[in-house]
Amino acid sequence: MIPSNAKKVFSGVLFEVYQWPQEMYDGSTETFEMLRREDTAEVIAVKDGKIMMQEQEQPTKPLFLSLPGGRISYGEEPLEGAQRELLEETGFVSNDWSLYRSARPLMKLDWRIHVFVAKDCVYRQAPRLDAGERITVKWVTLDELMDLVDCGTLARIEQDLRMDLVRAKYDASSKEELCRRFGLPL
């Protein structure tokens, strides 16, 4: 975490840079630095025994697959951000949400990824995409999702969730646990 005596030295579109003096073990002082960005959410959206995937296109990136999700605005609760992102990107909503995991993937970056499960999703409205997004919703089985992760086609996914999916592909009890947590049939 960024200490209270840190000073913001740069504000960009995605990142803020903080620096602070840090006393070393020998009594000398060094400047330490850390980045901060808005937390993000990923949603495992489930409907009729299938999991939602997005085929996304953005101006500076080749076509890629991802789970629904995006940035959580500062001051917004993680669940609120996940619900907003699911609705904006796909038009779907759910009344059955649970937190799967929150992770901090990099120690030099004050940023968390919150992974939520949204069960029994229903379509409510047309998506409201950002100007730089083109998204097509696809539905896959858990086995298909595990294959996409295992072969590297689905590379943009929270790393511990990636490991859970690969483990579940090769271990029946791990797969049963994911089915239970995602609300999928065994």
Summarize the model shown.
With 186 residues, the protein is α+β, with helices and mostly antiparallel strands.
- Beginning-to-end CA distance, first to last residue: 40 Å
Helix count equals 4
Average per-residue pLDDT, rounded, comes to 95
Number of domains: 2
Sequence stretches where pLDDT stays below 50 over 5 or more residues: none
Number of strands: 13
Principal-axis shape equals globular
Major β-sheet profile: 7 strands, mixed
**Which superfamily, in CATH terms, is the homologous superfamily of the largest domain?**
Nucleoside Triphosphate Pyrophosphohydrolase
Cα radius of gyration in angstroms: 19 Å
What is the helix fraction of residues, given as a range? 10-25%
At CATH level 2, the architecture of the largest domain is Alpha-Beta Complex
β-strand amount: 35-45%
What would CATH call the class of the largest domain?
Alpha Beta
N-to-C SSE string, H for helix and E for strand: EEEEEEEHEEEEEEHHH
Based on helices, strands and strand pairing, what is the structural class? alpha+beta
**CATH topology title of the largest domain:** Nucleoside Triphosphate Pyrophosphohydrolase
Keywords:
4-stranded mixed beta sheet; 13 strands; 4 helices; single chain; alpha+beta; 7-stranded mixed beta sheet; 186 residues; Nucleoside Triphosphate Pyrophosphohydrolase
Q: Could you describe the 3D structure shown?
A:
- The chain has 186 residues and is α+β, with helices and mostly antiparallel strands.
- It contains 4 helices and 13 strands.
- It has helices spanning 78-90, 142-150, 159-170, 172-182; strands at 7-11, 16-23, 29-36, 40-47, 50-58, 61-66, 69-71, 92-93, 96-103, 109-110, 113-119, 122-123, 134-140.
- The strands form 3 sheets. Strands 4, 5, 6, 7, 9, 11 and 13 form a 7-stranded mixed sheet that branches. It has a 4-stranded mixed sheet with strand order 1-2-3-10, with no helix packed on it.
- The protein is globular, with a radius of gyration of 19 Å.
- The model has no long low-confidence stretch (mean pLDDT 95).
